[in-house]
Amino acid sequence: MSHISVLLHETIDALLANRHTGIYVDATFGRGGHSRLLLSKLDANSHVYAFDKDPQALAVAAELAEQDARFHIIHSSFADVQAQLNARGIEMVDGIMADLGVSSPQLDQAERGFSFMNNGPLDMRMDNSQGPTAREWLLDIEEEQLANIIFKYGEERYSRRIAKAIKQAGEMTTTAQLAEVVKVAHPKWEKNKHAATRTFQAIRIAINKELEDIENFLPQAVNLLKPEGRLAVISFHSLEDRLIKQFIQKESSLAEDNGWGMPQQQQDTRRLKKISRIRASEQEVKENPRSRSAWLRVAERLSN
Questions:
Q1: Strand-pair partners of 23
Q2: Taking burial as the number of CB atoms within 10 A of a residue's CB, which of 12, 26, 51, 193 is the most buried?
């Protein structure tokens, strides 16, 4: 299955807000759907800087960079967005977008080891040129720590039972082996959902430091935005969406300052204002079922 960009037009329209020039960031290039549409709406003086960790995504991006001089690809996590852009002489940008989580090609290619639906080597790394594979990671991690990760990142109520089974199974080399161990250990799973769904999600998030990267990325994104610049972020599960929601809420709310012996005062430290929260349309969900869980949250940088 080829990658279909989720909430494509909604994201670009919200990001641009009727502008057609400037410097923009695609924090998660993937296969470039969002970057390509963005470039098509920008004038000749504009630039788009894209980030990705995946070597396959970088190869696609390199081709786009050859075709369009306005486009630039950076092999890095978006968790380093500010340092990477500053190193290139860019202090402020007009808009930043991110499409979080794993992409369709990563899920669909068995050799990437993300999915229990396609048996392959137990890998799960977004950047498969570095870092431990899922096989290596599962061998090294302690049972209690693994249980905590499956519970926290997979929201799996049977995490301790599953972690125990995984550690007792010893070394596993394929996604099918891991999925079977989880399935046997799981006493009761949700209708129309594989028993290993939550466990695979948790291991993938942990290996790729997905939530830590988001927490590092968001404040940097606000630092980089010019006044009236937009931040548009697509998330696919509750853990991601909660981080985005809470961050925007914090940055768009008045902070209370209780000084020494002073009456409580509200300090206006707001840096963002909420713009919108958008879900995929019924038509998009019908055409691309993976868009069903997607949320797009948009915020705008204030001038203070």
A1: 47
A2: 26
- Look at residues 192, 208, 224 and tell me which one is the last residue of a structural domain: 208
List the structure tokens of 97: 């977008």
Q: Do the beta carbons of residue 3 and residue 34 sit within 8 Å?
A: no
Q: Are both 51 and 198 inside the same structural domain?
A: no
Would you say residue 31 lies in a domain? yes
What average pLDDT does range 153-176 have in this prediction? Answer: 96
- 236 belongs to a structural domain: yes
Q: Give the integer Cα–Cα distance in Å for 196 and 190.
A: 10
Q: Taking a C-beta distance cutoff of 8 angstroms, is the pair 202, 156 a contact?
A: yes
The answer to whether residues 174 and 119 touch, using CB atoms and an 8 Å cutoff, is: yes
CA-CA distance, 41 to 275, in Å (whole number)? 21
Amino acid type, 60: V
Nearest Cα neighbor of 90 from 223, 213, 271, 217 is 223
Report the domain count for the chain. Answer: 2
Per DSSP, the three-state class of 16 is helix
What distances in angstroms separate CA 160 from CA 34, 48, 136, one per listed residue?
A: 40, 45, 20
Q: What three-state secondary structure class fits 233?
A: strand
Residue 151 belongs to domain spanning: 119-208
Q: Supply the CATH number for residue 131's domain.
A: 1.10.150.170
Q: Where are the alpha helices (DSSP H) in the chain?
A: 8-16, 33-41, 55-67, 81-87, 104-108, 134-140, 143-154, 159-169, 175-185, 197-208, 210-224, 238-251, 282-287
Whether 56 and 192 share a structural domain:
no
Q: At residue 106, does pLDDT exceed 80?
A: no
How does strand 255-257 pair with strand 272-279?
Answer: unpaired
For the whole model, what pTM was predicted?
Answer: 0.89
Are 174 and 297 part of one and the same domain? no
Give per-residue pLDDT as tens, 18-74.
999 999 999 999 999 999 999 999 999 999 999 998 888 999 999 999 999 999 999
